[in-house]
Amino acid sequence: MERNPHSIRSHPTSGGLIRLQARLADPTTWLSPAWAALCGVVASGGFGWQGADWLRLALLILLADGCWGTLWTAIGGIDWATPLRRWRHWQFGERIAKPPYTLPDSPGDRVFRWFGQFRAWWRHLFWLDRGPALTTIIVTLPVTLVLAVLLGSELVLISVGTVAVMQLGLAWKSGSGRPTPGWDAVVAVTLPWLAGHCAFGTLTPNSSILALTLGLAWGAAWKIELSRGRILAAGGQLLAVALLVALNQPLTALAACGLVLLLVPQLALLPWIKRGQPADWYVCHTRPWLMTAMLLTAWAL
């Protein structure tokens, strides 16, 4: 039977360094949005080291890491399905006081009985465990909008797309709170990279493709115990190498060689997976190599 790679131990939701619900125990999860956004900034080549650029960079990190990371933790990392599933058969709770002259089993009586059951379900089942996450979403969404507007229309569109991807990732696993690594990589790596590039320059096809391929490698590492996970983890980085070689420039060729060297230690650890080491062990030991590869690729552009 396939081992579940999405438990809290093996695949916590990537939530960002700056979060309303901070879990700083695992840097491989909370560092990814900020790092990917910085790689996007480097890929754009538009950072001018001036005061206005530093302010813009701070707003970008707050948006991609703080807001998106917090939203993704609250949306994708919470089990919303269980209370909704239990509501279908929920029959507990006293009815709300009905107006006088309301006949038993009349439509009005049934409505007030339903409201009483809903109140009991909300208080004792839904709000008790999911209330903080819902509050986080309500507070973070307007902050996200304000930061995106300050950064420009492109960041508004990317933010809207990011929230849509979060909802798709939630629906993909039926709201179970265990998003697949692919959706997590899109939210935590690909979209922050694109945001970083758009914040300081015009997005290019090469940067977009590299954000996708490296995001693919990032997410596939959590599936490294499966053959397709190993193929995608190495293949995503090899696709980045191929693109850099295709650009046919001395700097990109040098970066391509660097990416191959950074891939070697990741491949060297694969035999330990076959000996029983879990995916989270592999991610912990290979993530620094992949993060270095991301930065090197961004610099080469």
- Number of H- or I-type helical stretches: 12
Q: Taking all residues together, what is the mean pLDDT? A: 83
Number of strands: 0
Radius of gyration: 23 Å
The profile of the biggest β sheet is: none
Please report the distance between the alpha carbons of the first and last residues.
Answer: 43 Å
> What structural class should be given to the helix and strand makeup?
mainly alpha
Helical fraction: over 70%
Overall tally of structural domains: 1
Q: DSSP strand (E) fraction?
A: under 5%
3D shape: flat
Written as H for each helix and E for each strand, in order along the chain, the element string is HHHHHHHHHHHH
Which residues sit in consecutive blocks of at least 5 with pLDDT less than 50? Answer: 1-10, 19-25
Structure, described:
By secondary structure, the protein is mostly helical. The chain has one domain. The chain is built from twelve helices and no strands. The chain is flat and about 85 Å long. The relative contact order is 0.14. Mean pLDDT is 83; it is low at 1-10 and 19-25.
Fold blueprint:
Layout: H1 27-30, H2 32-44, H3 51-76, H4 81-87, H5 107-151, H6 153-172, H7 181-200, H8 205-220, H9 227-246, H10 250-268, H11 270-274, H12 279-300
Helix pairs in contact: 2-3, 2-7, 2-12, 3-5, 3-6, 3-7, 5-6, 6-7, 7-8, 8-9, 8-12, 9-10, 10-12
Search tags:
301 residues, mainly alpha, 12 helices, disordered N terminus
Give a brief rundown of this model.
With 301 residues, the protein is an all-alpha fold. The protein is 72% helix and 0% strand.
